[in-house]
Amino acid sequence: MAKVVLVTGMQAAGKSTIAPLLAARMGPPAATLDGDVFYRGVVAGAEVMTPDPSAEAVRQLQLRYDASALVAQHYADAGFDFVCSDIVLGEHVERWFSRLHDVDPYLIVLVPAVESIVEREIGRGGANSYRDWGPSLEDGVRALQAGLDDIPRRGLWIDTTGQTAAETVDGIDLEKARW
């Protein structure tokens, strides 16, 4: 049975770097997808998530999550292990996994310290990812990070503060990440 892993956490937590490294360790055959592909896919009429999102922003977010779950299932049906990276929070995590069938599901939540996320975000050129979430970058990270509290306490939660991507992947025990 194919393994399907959801790697989630905050923006700048390392998801899109860790997911392909993990997939490469799992396979062959293995594939990966960054959910941002679907976020960037809406080229006209895109609505971003904010602390008080519009109905359309929520609809587009759910379309993004549903699309990545469908792709994960498609690859799993073809016998591939699959790793998806995306910011999936709260009840959306359970819904994401509920769309899968006949797979071994795993959840990895990356939870570096706020200071680590701020440093990474500044290294990327600024606070654009958190601009709608607080008066400062730190406040924005803390506000969005509250969404982690709504994820069921299942899977593997990793504080990646001070770790390289390779160190994080080396420390992943998939059995502990089982959904």
Write the layout of secondary structure elements.
Layout: E1 3-9, H1 15-26, E2 30-34, H2 36-41, H3 55-77, E3 81-85, H4 91-98, E4 104-110, H5 114-123, H6 137-145, E5 156-158, H7 165-170, H8 174-177
Helix pairs in contact: 5-6
Summarize the structure in words.
With 179 residues, this protein is α/β, with parallel strands linked by helices. It has a single domain, classed as 3-Layer(aba) Sandwich (Rossmann fold), CATH 3.40.50.300. Helix content is 44%, strand content 15%. The protein has helices spanning 15-26, 36-41, 55-77, 91-98, 114-123, 137-145, 165-170, 174-177, and strands at 3-9, 30-34, 81-85, 104-110, 156-158. Strands 2-3-1-4-5 form a five-stranded parallel beta sheet, with helices on both faces. Helix 5 (114-123) packs across helix 6 (137-145). The chain starts with a strand and ends with a helix. The mean pLDDT is 92. It comes from Kribbella speibonae. InterPro entries: P-loop_NTPase. This is Phosphotransferase.
Which strand-content bin applies to the residues? 15-25%
Output the CATH homologous superfamily: P-loop containing nucleotide triphosphate hydrolases
Globally, the shape reads globular
DSSP helix fraction: 40-55%
Q: Which residue ranges are poorly predicted, with pLDDT under 50 across at least 5 consecutive positions?
A: none
Provide the spatial order of strands within the biggest beta sheet: 2-3-1-4-5
What's the Cα radius of gyration? 16 Å
CATH fold group:
Rossmann fold
CATH class: Alpha Beta
The chain-level structural class is: alpha/beta
Tell me the total number of β-strands.
5
Q: Give the number of helices.
A: 8
Tell me the number of structural domains: 1
CATH architecture: 3-Layer(aba) Sandwich
Organism: Kribbella speibonae
Protein name: Phosphotransferase
